[in-house]
Amino acid sequence: MDIPHQRLVYFRVTAESGSLRRAASRLNIAPSAVSRQIALLEDVFDAPLLERTSRGMRPTPTGEMVLDYCRQRSALDDEFIARLEAQQRLEAGTIALVVGEGFVGDLIDTPLKSFAERYRGIRLDVEVAGTDGIIEAVVEDQAHIGLMFHERIHPQLRFWHSSEQPLMAVCPPGHPLAGGEAPLTLAQLAETPLALWRPGHGVRTLVDQAFAEAALRPQVTLETNSMAVLRHSVLAGMQLTILPRFAVVRELEAGSLVARPIACATFCSAQAHMITRVGRRQPQASLRLLRHLAEWMRAFRTYSS
């Protein structure tokens, strides 16, 4: 059933004012025009909507239903407009992010904390995933923004910002490879028990590539999909691991872990990336967060200095 909005407006004003003449005055049109529009509306419902009484015009039973519908529709319109204006003022809305686990600590401590403090009405939905999961979530519009390590070519990905983040050898201060000024070699690492991400993770892809190019086979004694497992296995002195510096920045600042550079071109050129889907129209809040995160990623460089 097609119910023109303007006719509903004429009917509601007439029903609430109790007079065609008063309704016409409020609407700034002729009474005959109001009467004609209401008559057309009655044709749609196949029932009279207004009746004349000694106190003026009042809705019929069908008219009461239509008047209630008009009020509900108006309330929905008002609510929608208020929500839309709040979103445009960055006072409401949800931004979905999907990130590699190594980003989580510094991401929450620094950019998300400051963004949430500034835009308190914005809800942040943060999921953790591996590289494949991050790409899928962004491409399938399950997330507005993705943060991943190691570039993966995909026709539907837009790279908003990339930051060089060399892979480092991470170990406890008492480890035999913790000291010295010269970068570690892949040959040295190949003789050391390693804890690594499972195959398919962006960091693991680079590690496997580097050792394969050097014709070396690393001693992988622990594989996991958990950053916490990697961190604790290294803190316990079980293995050495290979990670970007930002992934363990808290432990490095506390002195519980040490990050040593590695003489490997593949590791030195590694990058962190912020991605969205090509062609997706980002809401205003998401665009603001993209710019905010880009500034944070530029600061990544201080971590490798």
Gap between N and C termini: 68 Å
Which CATH architecture of the largest domain would you pick?
3-Layer(aba) Sandwich
Please give the radius of gyration in angstroms: 31 Å
Number of strands: 12
CATH superfamily of the largest domain: Periplasmic binding protein-like II
GO molecular function: DNA binding; DNA-binding transcription factor activity
Family: Belongs to the LysR transcriptional regulatory family.
Protein name: LysR family transcriptional regulator
Pfam families: HTH_1 (PF00126), LysR_substrate (PF03466)
Structural features, described:
- With 305 residues, the protein is α/β, with parallel strands linked by helices.
- It has three domains: 84 residues, Winged helix-like DNA-binding domain superfamily/Winged helix DNA-binding domain (Arc Repressor Mutant, subunit A), CATH 1.10.10; 105 residues, Periplasmic binding protein-like II (D-Maltodextrin-Binding Protein, domain 2, 3-Layer(aba) Sandwich), CATH 3.40.190; 102 residues, Periplasmic binding protein-like II (D-Maltodextrin-Binding Protein, domain 2, 3-Layer(aba) Sandwich), CATH 3.40.190.
- The protein has twelve helices and twelve strands.
- The chain has a five-stranded mixed sheet with strand order 4-3-5-12-6, sandwiched between helices. Strands 9-8-10-7-11 form a five-stranded mixed sheet, sandwiched between helices.
- α8 links the parallel β8 and β9.
- α1 crosses α2, α1 crosses α3 and α1 packs across α4.
- The longest helix has 28 residues.
- It is rod-shaped and about 100 Å long.
- The C terminus is likely disordered.
- Belongs to the LysR transcriptional regulatory family.
- One of its GO terms (cellular component) is cytosol.
- Keywords: DNA-binding, Transcription, Transcription regulation.
- It holds the Pfam family LysR_substrate.
- InterPro entries: HTH-type_LysR_regulators (IPR050950), LysR_HTH_N (IPR000847), LysR_subst-bd (IPR005119), WH-like_DNA-bd_sf (IPR036388), WH_DNA-bd_sf (IPR036390).
